[in-house]
Design brief:
The protein is α/β, with parallel strands linked by helices. The chain contains ten helices and 18 strands. The chain is 26% helix and 22% strand. Helix 1 links the parallel strand 1 and strand 2.
């Protein structure tokens, strides 16, 4: 490979903040909310021009369960707050009446605490929430590099329409979904072993209605008998019954290679076009309304944290748990999530949240979805409001703050 030497240049330090959140998906939203509510000056950087990430721009509009499938709510706090916010103007499908309208335990077992939401309304509402909290949002902004001194990130170097500049930071929360900041700062990271399958969801209109087409397999599940299959359209009501999952190609991509990502998007668009045209032949009213505008990356790169959580650790007690998650794919399993999965020892003022936390590949498929992303985002933002050396943070104080917001920390609390 040919190389050139980039010329050094002086960069203006254009801003500063207590907490910089990189990535405006669900984890980043939750982290920014929690840190701002903790009294910190927060900046949220998002490379696109809307918040929500996969949930909104990717059109993965299924808010997966907050319960264990056996009638017990497991996830609370900001994760539940965002679920309610996503359907405050009505659910697109699967309104969780048994959970929000006082249903019986039997009804809660029959219908898990999940829903489907409108991505556009949700993106606009979370933006309003964050701006009301005083969070400074920079859209169209990519973290290009970090400056690390004495095991701490002192500045992040960003690029946007204004050019290249630096932001001085006290702490950073990596919610990029690909552990980009962890990688840039020299924190240990790991790549997912199996890569990602092609997927590109879209909305279409047909016969006067608008429907969600889950085009391509965005989720790989280990047990086809127990795992919920997302329906081809949103009309089934119960996404744990019904069941068509569609595969659109064998190409797999890592999610952290620019050329590879571009190829995946081009391939998906071509297959999506063919799918729409084939259906349009039989139904002239079948036309696309909107499509995923970002690649549907499930698992790519994560932090190799102070602890790595595995799916075998069901209901294992962790003294430093910062919340719970269930298994969206099947009923029963509940996991405590240690604070140590959010940080590494090498970069003391850096946290990961959402898809970036430290898990094994098998556990990754459980923790990458909306509810646990919100759980880890809230924990990271709350921690950043308490201090910036996360290797020495008072975890008991963090847990007290989380409990005050209704978060359940241990499995014996449900």
């Amino acid at each position: 490979m040919r190389e050139i030497i980039e010329r050094e240049r002086r960069l203006p330090v254009t801003d500063s903040c207590d907490v910089l959140v990189a990535g405006g998906g669900i984890a980043g939203i939750a982290a920014a909310m929690a840190a701002a509510r903790g009294g910190k000056k927060v900046m949220l950087l998002e490379r696109e021009f809307a918040l929500g990430g996969m949930a909104t721009l990717g059109l993965v509009t299924i808010y997966l369960p907050l319960c264990d499938g056996e009638g017990n709510q497991v996830i609370y706090g900001i994760a539940e707050e965002l679920l309610k916010l996503s359907i405050e103007h009505g659910a697109e499908a699967n309104y969780p009446a048994a959970w929000l309208d006082g249903g019986s335990r039997e009804e809660r077992i029959e219908k898990r605490y999940m829903t489907q939401f409108n991505p556009h309304l949700f993106a606009m509402r979370v933006e309003q929430i964050l701006t009301d909290l005083g969070v400074k949002i920079l859209f169209g902004t990519l973290v290009a590099q970090t400056v690390v001194e004495d095991d701490r990130i002192t500045h992040v170097i960003v690029e946007n329409k204004s050019g290249r500049s630096a932001i001085a930071v006290e702490s950073v929360i990596d919610c990029t979904g690909d552990a980009d900041i962890c990688h840039q700062a020299g924190a240990p990271t790991e790549l997912h072993g199996n890569g990602n399958a092609l997927a590109g969801w879209y909305y279409y209109q047909s016969n006067g209605g608008v429907h969600l087409k889950m085009f391509g397999l965005a989720d790989v599940v280990p047990d086809k008998e127990e795992a919920p299959k997302l329906a081809e359209t949103a009309d089934t009501g119960d996404h744990y019954k019904a069941i068509k999952v569609e595969s659109i190609g064998n190409f797999r991509f890592s999610g952290v290679d620019g050329a590879e990502l571009s190829k995946s998007v081009v391939d998906v668009h071509a297959k999506m076009y063919d799918d729409i045209m084939s259906r349009h032949k039989d139904d002239e009213s079948y036309l696309p309304v909107t499509m995923s505008t970002i690649p549907l990356v499930r698992m790519s790169r994560r932090i190799a944290g102070a602890y790595t959580l595995d799916d075998s650790e069901e209901r294992v007690h962790f003294e430093d748990s910062i919340g719970l998650t269930c298994d969206w794919r099947k009923r029963g399993p509940v996991y405590e999530m240690p604070f140590r999965t959010l940080y590494c020892k090498e970069i003391k003022n850096l946290l990961a949240a959402g898809r970036d936390i430290s898990t094994t590949d098998r556990m990754w498929d459980i923790t990458r979805v909306i509810p646990p992303c919100a759980v880890t985002g809230e924990a990271a933002g709350t921690a950043a409001a308490l201090g910036s050396d996360f290797t020495a943070l008072d975890v008991a104080a963090l847990q007290q703050k989380l409990r005050a917001n209704g978060v359940r920390l241990h499995t014996d609390e449900i």
